[in-house]
Amino acid sequence: MAQGGRWTWGWPRTLMGWSHGLMLAGAMGAAIALAVQPPWVQRAEGQAQALLLALRGPVPTPDTVVILAIDEESLTQGDLYQATAPDLPPATLQTWPLPRAAYATVIERLLAAGATVVAIDVLMVDPSVYGPADDARLQTVLDQVGDRVVLAAAYDTAASTGGQLVQLLTPVYRPGSAAIGVINFPVDSDQRLRRLPDPFITALADQSRVAAPGPSFALATLAAAAISVPDPAGSRIHFYGPTGSFATVPFWHVLDPNNWAFHQAQRTFAGKLVLIGPTAASLQDIKLTPTASTMPGVEVHAHTLATLMEGTAVGPITPHRWLSGLATGLLLSLVGLGLGWGINRPLLRLAGFGAIALVWGGVAYGLLVSHHRWIPVAIPALGLGLGSITYTATGALGDRREQQRLRRTLERYVAPPVVAEILAQPENYSTLTVGKRLPAAVLFSDIRGFSRLSFQQPAEAMVELLNTYLDAMVQAILTHRGTIDKFIGDAVMAEFGSPTSQGAQTDAINAIRAGLAMRRSLAALRSQLIAKGQPPLFHGIGISYGDVIAGNIGSVQRLEYTVIGDTVNIASRLESLSKRLGTDFVITDALYQQVRDQVQGVDLGHHRLAGREAELVQVYGVIGLTAADAELYHQVQQDLRQYLGWGESP
User: Fold this and answer.
1) Alpha carbon of 59 to those of 42, 303, 319, 367: distances in Å?
2) Could you tell me the sign of the dihedral formed by the alpha carbons of 589, 594, 595, 596, in that order?
3) 156 phi, psi to nearest 5 deg
4) Which residues of 142-180 are buried (b: 16+ CB within 10 A; e: fewer)?
5) Is the pTM of this model over 0.90?
6) First to last CA, the chain
7) What is the pLDDT of residues 562-586, one digit of tens each?
């Protein structure tokens, strides 16, 4: 069970070594994955960010941004457009696309109401379906106030024989009559929009070979409003909330006289950056974002605009992705290995991994919400989860194998109920191996005349007889919660109260009951031997009670769990004294005082023990339990004295 002064766990140690190796390999893999950022990592981290944003909930948006939404209601208000654009014949008025004259009227009214900028997230790259007059109406307005208007442009990607063909689609109106903003966004591998568009737009411009590409829709809007913004500290959009986070007004309200009068009175658009764009589901300008399953494109532009204007772009904790991955992998290694080495109990280890994962998630949440910085969440959480599963599984398997091995070993020496208690609290049992002082009853027994018998009997027969005898004695001891310490030839040493105690009185009476059971077992065995014509066996039993030192004792090559001390020496001397007293079962006064109300004893006087000649020891013979019949006692004493040639028993 022990080697080299410490417990060896065999399989469990091997399994834990595998666990440490797997943890290191997993942490290294996580570091590489975070540094390289393959699509599956991007998707996982994107989902983690979405979860943190969902936990955060919506936050206040800038009150200077208003969305004028082309919603389903606005698409059904054709009569209002007819009223505001009487030059269009009724036959040409359709639901979509809206007449350019309608946009012209809305631009005039919004700017007259104090709007700072009007940005239209609708592509007007083809002439109006309502005819040249419709385009002319909007061109006239742009010529007058175009410096405060932003029109949408877009890069179109199409497959061609030479690869992908990228071209810039621009409005059909006179160049320079309005600012131009590109509405493209980069799309992540999970089809969600997270990143600011400008680096992506620059890359598209390089592919299309446009000499002077326009800025993003958001930057163009800020430039038209004369709002300067620093370079963003991060590359991701700060989403303030789900769909509907920004103040939104239906497009048709500006065209309807009554609603427009209300908004003029409320100064709804005064000093505002107004983004016009479709929100109706039928127009299919729907995007996927981290905070919503679907969001109209114009709202994504609003979040982008607010991110740039307020400087809340979300960025990594370090600009170097590889450094972030390396640091995360190193931290995972230290945490995982620390938990694996520092906590031995599987459930506590699992709880430790869970706590670390929660702390990591809490730190990530705080950084994202308070400082607009993100650290990897999904991969570290996955790594910690796999680490906890690996350690828990290997630990549980190792513990199971160790328990089976330990049970098989202990059940040879310890009563099954005691084994169950030890295995239920293995950490307590392991502390006993380092040495502990405790009170216990120590039992020694020895066969009378064994040396003479060994000369008279063949070796094979003697070994069989001895095994039969010891099997009966061990069963009697284990039945009463004793621990078999060792066999010394025909002698047996056992303890009661070590390694586990039931209390002083219980340990003491268990020792007495075990000795009485040994007497009964030997009497039955003796009858069988006599019936077979074999020599009878008698033994002497000595039990003392007091403090012992229990622990692993021995050399580097061999250790054994045993007890030492004066109590052990007294028990051994008592067993030898029983032969001189002509009785089979003697105990010390210290033990007798523990059980005197439950045991019939006979005072055998004070005696000097070998090695303790200067001190007299009070000795009692054990007749039996208080309510038990003394017939067996008297019979055993008589037979023993006759065997020894003493005559009558005391």
Assistant:
1) 25, 12, 26, 15
2) positive
3) -110, 130
4) beebbebbbbbbbbeeeeeeeeeebebbbbebeeebbbb
5) no
6) 46
7) 889 999 999 999 999 999 999 999 9
